[in-house]
Amino acid sequence: MIHLGIIGTNWITDQFVEAAHQTNRYRLRAVYSRTLAKAEAFGQKYGEVLYETDLQAFFDLPEIDTVYIASPNSLHFAQAKQAILAGKHVIVEKPAFSTPREMAEIITLANQQQVLFFEAARNIHEKSFRTVADFLPTKGAIIGANFSYMKYSSRYDAVLAGEEPNIFSPHFSGGALADLGVYTIYATLAWFGKPEGIHYFARKLPTGVDGIGSAILRYPTFDVTIQTGKIADAHLRSEIYFDNGTLDLNAVNAIEEAIFYGRSEADTQELAVAAQANPMVEEANDFADVIEDSTDPLQGKRYEEWVELARSVNETIYLMRKQADIDFDADQE
Questions:
Q1: Domains in the chain: ranges and CATH
Q2: From CA 257, how far away is CA 261, in angstroms rounded?
Q3: Could you tell me which residues come within 8 angstroms of residue 38 by beta carbon, excluding any fewer than 6 positions away?
Q4: Can you state the angle between helices 127-135 and 182-192, rounded to 10 degrees?
Q5: Is 267 helix (H, G, I), strand (E, B) or coil?
Q6: pLDDT reported for residue 323
Q7: Which of 3, 112, 179, 186 is the most exposed place for a label (fewest CB within 10 A)?
Q8: pTM for the whole thing?
Q9: What is the distance between the alpha carbons of residues 112 and 59, in angstroms, rounded to a whole number?
């Protein structure tokens, strides 16, 4: 049984804890919040849980061995580092870290302390995502792709009113690319590898981060076009173009439908994909597989692949952000 502590008491933390309990491989043991009332309000539905308002005391709890971090983006690095130094495994909600320097330091530190670091990019852990990966032909037969993920954030209303909520603040490493765009970058790099060229065109908000943006990731023989945003809703599907047809996906962040349209009707086929009611169950199971059996060569290989993919995604997003002249406070540290 994995003994879980959590930082962050928002809806995504609830979803992860529920998914973790659904696997029957985790037990929530402790909740950290800056206020006791907020910690208790979150944890009371999960039974007997410890509550801490002191972060170091939380990490020092012997009752927990793994920490799930879903605080504002800019806090992830310091909290993950503190947890690792306390001997805990860390599951860090995407985007895990703001810069390649932060990512490299955490990977090195986790290896030194002999604990595990996971970036919670749930889409790559879904069976549907792997089904698409298995269906893809050789890269030479791919001639392009279009991925879209845009969703209006209610907190943009605060920006319009002259405020600066965390998810739209450079002080907290926010913006469209850091939030929703990460799913499209994960899909691109997981399926096609690192691009040889990157071009990101963003529309910056008065707060200094991107509200909406388009990107082109160049590969030797094809391009991937990406659209992401948090100030409008997109109802576009995503597509991968082959030399003999098109794979049509409802999305890349949660694949519920995948249809290959060949040149003739006889070549058209529907892939067997389905989404879990809670989209975080599959990642929770994947993380548990490695935590419970990290010495197994197969699990070790999977873990290293996830870590290197997380590193590549982080580097790609950093380069895209710099192209768009988007600076975070974390860049100066």
A1: 2-119 (3.40.50.720), 124-280+313-332 (3.30.360.10)
A2: 13
A3: 9
A4: 40
A5: helix
A6: 96
A7: 112
A8: 0.96
A9: 18
- Structure tokens that stand for 314 in this block: 């982080």
The size of the chain, in residues, is 333
* Run means of pLDDT, 10 residues per run, the chain, 333 residues: 96 96 98 94 93 97 98 98 98 98 98 98 97 93 98 98 97 98 98 97 98 98 98 97 96 96 89 92 98 92 97 98 97 86
Helix H or strand E segment including 2: strand 2-7
Backbone φ and ψ for 249, nearest 5 degrees, come out as -120, 145
**3-state SS, residue 205:** coil
- Per-residue 3-state assignment (H helix, E strand, C coil) for 206-264: CCCCEEEEEEEEECCCCEEEEEEECCCCCCCCEEEEECCEEEEECCCCCCCCEEEEECC
Question: What's the distance, Cα to Cα, between the start and end of the chain in Å?
Answer: 37
What is d(CA 191, CA 245) in angstroms, rounded to the nearest whole number? Answer: 17
Helices (H) and strands (E) in the chain, counts: 11, 14
pLDDT number for residue 31: 98
